[in-house]
Design goal:
The radius of gyration is 27 Å and the shape is elongated. It has 29 helices and 9 strands. It is α+β, with helices and mostly antiparallel strands and 619 residues long. A 5-stranded antiparallel sheet has the order 7-6-8-5-9. Strands 2-3-1-4 form a 4-stranded antiparallel sheet. It comes from Candidatus Chloroploca mongolica. InterPro entries: Cit_transptr-like_dom, DASS-Related_Transporters, Na/sul_symport_CS, RCK_C, RCK_C_sf. It holds the Pfam family TrkA_C. It is found in: Membrane. This is SLC13 family permease.
Length: 619
């Protein structure tokens, strides 16, 4: 082993360790690896920067625009609403219908975006059918991952595999080359989840006890309040005619600094009325009037002191009085992988002034953060309990439904109507452009990258997608990750590292035959994909698969197809994919829940690859 190989393998090992540790963003880790390869002289500056001009990176960026257009025009949301109407209340029927709808949607839109759109729909379906969402969300996540196996553009590993073939001087995979295997995996997954898999799923979140048609979310909201451990901090006070608060604005009252309380909602309540009026938006300039009812988040002792010193009446809390879900609404939101909230605290984000709502609590991996949670830097997968009146929460739900900074995971019935929007006028145009793109890609008449760019530009020019939103929502982390990791393959090839690794695999497994090599490549890839991104896994494994095929004297197509499929089998851990992380808290899952259902499914996919990959792609 030469010193150059040792350097590259050391950098690769350090990169994998940093990926698994999750201490740094994936794109930052990839850039550090790229810098290390350049500074050690393994790669020239031209070789190090080549990944940023690679056709795979440009193609993925263009396809993101296409997927974003389907989201922004409401096409994806319409499909999800259709599912809600036809799925019924049978758990088995919902799981089957859910997987049948989600997988094809994920074949053309990012799997994470698909789950973001479907998450509130599935939670609502579970509530109406009186089924625990824990029984539905993992099947949805698995279907989204399997959807990436259906087409060339379904997931980055497929594109990486196709380009690896082209770079090796062979015909690249076609648009539907992955479809037979993907359909087999989807069919087997649906049968598995319907017959056995659903019995391996937990009931972590208890289903509501009310009738399916009642559409009463009070129980769910109360459970959310309990889960975030803020029940005792919700209080209601009424302003007496003699209170010194009268005429003062929220900022002038200094309530938050003097009493450490957060004003959640304010209701006008004249003395001649039996009930308060509708909750109104609260901001720094909101002024207090005699009779106003105030919902606050405050420790009991502080609320009592505030009531005494400011001449306020203490009333039953929102949970006891029925204000919850009538005036003060509560929703749970989950941060998305591209959220601008990541790495920033609730205080830094100024959530109240930005959205007109308040954050009652934060959960991380299903556990509420204690103490000063508002000062804690937020991470992907964190969930926030958000409270506010209808007038402020309604536009928040509407604006975020297209996969913004967070996913609305639990929505009160009063706000569900806000999501029942019709498709935008540009929706038919978006559908036509997307279908034309798919037809041309399938026909192979124009290079795939060119077709995708043409479709992306057409969608922008026709107003189907806003350029500002594209730049804001573009998956820059994924693009930088791919662009920065591609030169790692160059470094391995240049120094002989690829030959060394492939040689070890061939010497160990090769004597057992090509079928054993498929098993070995699948297992190695699927293990990596449980802890690092499927894109990074594919970039690392493709050149090794090519070299192993060359050494064994067989065609590389079956090995590359196997690696691409295995890279998308991120079923066994909650950190294997953003898709799995997104459903972690809404489903109340634990780490082992994913492995219980995911490992058997991975073994089934391995069997499919062993039997059908050699038949469809002979050695």
């Amino acid at each position: 082993m030469t010193s150059d190989i040792l350097i590259v393998l050391s950098i690769l090992l350090a990169t994998i360790i940093l990926f698994v540790s999750d201490r740094l963003r994936l794109d930052v880790v990839a850039l550090l690896a790229l810098l290390a390869l350049t500074l050690t002289g393994i790669l020239t500056p031209a070789e190090a920067s080549a990944g940023f001009g690679d056709t795979v990176v440009i193609l993925i960026a263009a396809l993101f625009v296409v997927g974003e257009a389907l989201l922004q025009t409401g096409v994806a949301a319409s499909i999800s609403r259709w599912l809600g109407r036809v799925a019924g209340t049978s758990e088995l029927r919902i799981i089957v219908m859910l997987m049948v709808v989600v997988a094809p949607l994920s074949a053309f839109i990012s799997s994470t975006g698909t789950v973001a759109i479907m998450l509130p729909v599935v939670v609502a379906l579970a509530r109406r059918a009186r089924i625990s969402p824990s029984r539905l969300l993992i099947p949805m996540a698995y279907a989204a991952l399997i959807g990436g196996m259906l087409t060339l553009i379904g997931t980055p590993p497929n594109l990486v595999a196709s380009e690896a073939l082209a770079n090796a001087g062979r015909d690249p995979f076609g648009f539907f080359s992955f479809t037979p295997i993907g359909l087999l995996v989807l069919g087997v997954a649906i049968i598995f989840m319907a017959l056995a898999g659903r019995h391996l799923l937990p009931t972590r979140v208890q289903p509501p006890a009310d009738a399916p048609d009642a559409r009463n979310d009070a129980v769910t909201s109360a459970e959310l309040i309990d889960a975030y451990a803020v029940k005792d901090d919700l209080v209601s006070l009424r302003v007496r005619p003699t209170s010194p608060l009268i005429g003062k604005s929220v900022v002038e009252s200094t309530l938050s600094t003097a009493y450490d309380v957060t004003l959640l909602a304010s209701y006008p309540w004249q003395n001649d009325r039996a009930q308060p009026g509708k909750a109104r938006a609260v901001n720094a300039n909101t002024r207090f009037a005699a009779g106003d009812l105030l919902d606050l988040q405050a420790p009991t002792a502080q609320a009592e002191r505030m009531a005494t010193e400011l001449d306020l009446d203490v009333l039953p809390s929102p949970l006891e009085s029925g204000h919850l879900n009538t005036g003060l609404l509560v929703v749970e939101v989950a941060l998305t992988p591209r959220s601008s909230f990541l790495g920033r605290s609730v205080v830094d984000l100024a959530v109240r002034s930005r959205f007109g709502v308040n954050v009652l609590g934060v959960q991380r991996l299903g556990q509420p953060l204690k103490g000063a949670f508002a000062q804690e830097q937020l991470r992907f997968g964190d969930t926030l309990l958000v409270a506010g009146p209808m007038v402020t929460l309604a536009p928040l739900v509407r604006d975020q439904r297209y996969y913004g900074d967070f996913v609305i995971a639990a929505v009160p019935p009063e706000l569900e109507a806000e999501q029942e929007t019709t498709m935008a006028p540009q929706a038919p145009v978006a559908i036509i452009i997307t279908l034309l793109m798919l037809i041309v890609m399938a026909g192979g008449w124009v290079p795939t990258m060119t077709v995708a760019l043409l479709a992306a530009v057409a969608l922008v020019l026709t107003g189907c997608v806003k350029v500002t939103e594209v730049y804001k929502r573009m998956s820059w982390e994924s693009l930088v990750l791919i662009a920065a990791m591609l030169p790692m393959a160059t470094a391995l090839n240049k120094t002989g590292g690829t030959s060394l690794i492939a040689g070890g695999i061939v010497e160990t497994i090769g004597p057992l035959g090509p079928l054993a090599l498929i098993v070995g490549m699948f297992l190695l890839t699927t293990i990596f994909s449980q802890f690092i991104s499927n894109t990074a896994t594919a970039v690392l494994m493709m050149p090794i698969a090519l070299e192993a095929a060359s050494r064994l004297g067989i065609g590389p197509e079956p090995l590359l197809m196997t690696v691409a499929i295995a890279a998308s089998t991120a079923f066994a851990t909650p950190i294997a994919s953003p898709v799995n992380t997104l459903v972690l808290t809404p489903g109340g899952y634990r780490f082992a829940d994913y492995a219980r259902a995911g490992l058997p499914l991975q073994l089934l996919v391995l069997v499919i690859c062993m039997i059908f990959v050699p038949l469809l792609f002979p050695f």
